[in-house]
Amino acid sequence: MEYQFHPGMDYAKELDKQDPLREIRHRFYVKENEIYMDGNSLGLCSKDAEKAVLKALDVWKEHGIGIWNVEDSKYFLYPSYIGKRMASLIHAEPDEVTITNSVTINIHQGISTFYKPTKDRYKILVDNLNFPTDRYAVDSQVRLHGYEPADAVKVVESQDGRMLSEDAIIDAMTKDVALIVLPSLLYRSAQLLDMERITAEAHKRDIIIGWDLCHSIGAVYHDFQKIDPDFAVWCNYKYISGGPGTTAGLYINKKHFDKNPGLAGWHGNVKATQFQLKHQYEHSNDADGWLTGTPPILSMAAIDGVLDIYEEVGMDKIREKSLKLTAYLMYLIDERLVKLGYRIGNPREDMKRGGHVSLEHDEAYRICQALKKHGVIPDFREPNVVRLAPVALYVSYEDIHRFADILEELTINKEYEQFSNTRSLVV
């Protein structure tokens, strides 16, 4: 889409007046005099999430062990209950989504289920720009099968350190590849891959493919009816705002429901016989068949609460505003900050970028520290990226304009030079 923006704070305020989502901001705990641009690492707490967590606490206080039977066993069935609600965010069938474990464990679950190496087809195809936990899991799994990562893990290399070539990914789908694990969105550069094209090419070659949606879920609408992946994983604490470290999401394509999970546990058993406690596993014929242990209710309740907002607003409106916010941010960078040594390191086209802007500068780390001093919460990623995520549900156009004002002034004054380049424990 072509956007026609104009300079000035008055224009930013006018954009906010025209924003159909402007009232949703008040359902989040947005601090006064703070500009929160780190929702792609940890989303802000919503009042809806808080209400749901407090309700779960009240049910526990009132019913004790009876929590599993109240409200038609809602909490006992929480993984599928919330999974059904989340399915609309990716246009999946309700029984193809469940909420369980962490992202890393779900990657292990997907690989251990679908990775069936043979003498001639034993490699897992990955890229060199994905978040490292995916690679750690892949390397671990090939070792469990008796291979060395140097031989069994095939890596598609980026040519510029920012983006991946989809043609290169497809060219790497050789006959020795058994499984592919890729990110839907690159966490540094915000590049959004053409999942439908890549998945179709994998399936033409009878290759299983799984996607990591961590940096796109909640900001980008995915149509899994069209994409048709074999499995997918994601976290729920970034754009979804389900709380720090909250339970992750897992998608299993219904065509694979007959397969046994690589990592089996008692909550993956058919619910009707689960408490018969047999030692013979009865696999639930849906995504819940990939559950393992007892669901962490207090963690999951926040996801349940914030999904009220997602259902009310809809992913189409969220994506529309997200694209406009990031386009406006890039407009201000081009107009005011490029001349000060900044570069935009993400794709500009709507169809090729996610919900954050990758702002590059040689002093990115110290600039992030200086921004925090002024009440701006950005995100630093090695080696030179200031990640900026104007989340559509609670970031305003005025926030973005104020951010540009602050960054321009502290750069001109070289205020960042007051800060150390020594990395803190969490950057």
Automatic annotation (TrEMBL):
Pfam families: KYNU_C. One of its GO terms (biological process) is anthranilate metabolic process. The keyword Hydrolase applies. InterPro entries: Kynureninase (IPR010111), PyrdxlP-dep_Trfase (IPR015424), PyrdxlP-dep_Trfase_major (IPR015421), PyrdxlP-dep_Trfase_small (IPR015422). The keyword Transcription does not apply. Pyridoxal 5'-phosphate binds at residues 104, 131-134, 212, 215, 237, 266, 294. GO terms for molecular function: kynureninase activity; pyridoxal phosphate binding. Homodimer. This is Kynureninase. It comes from Aminipila luticellarii. The gene is kynU.
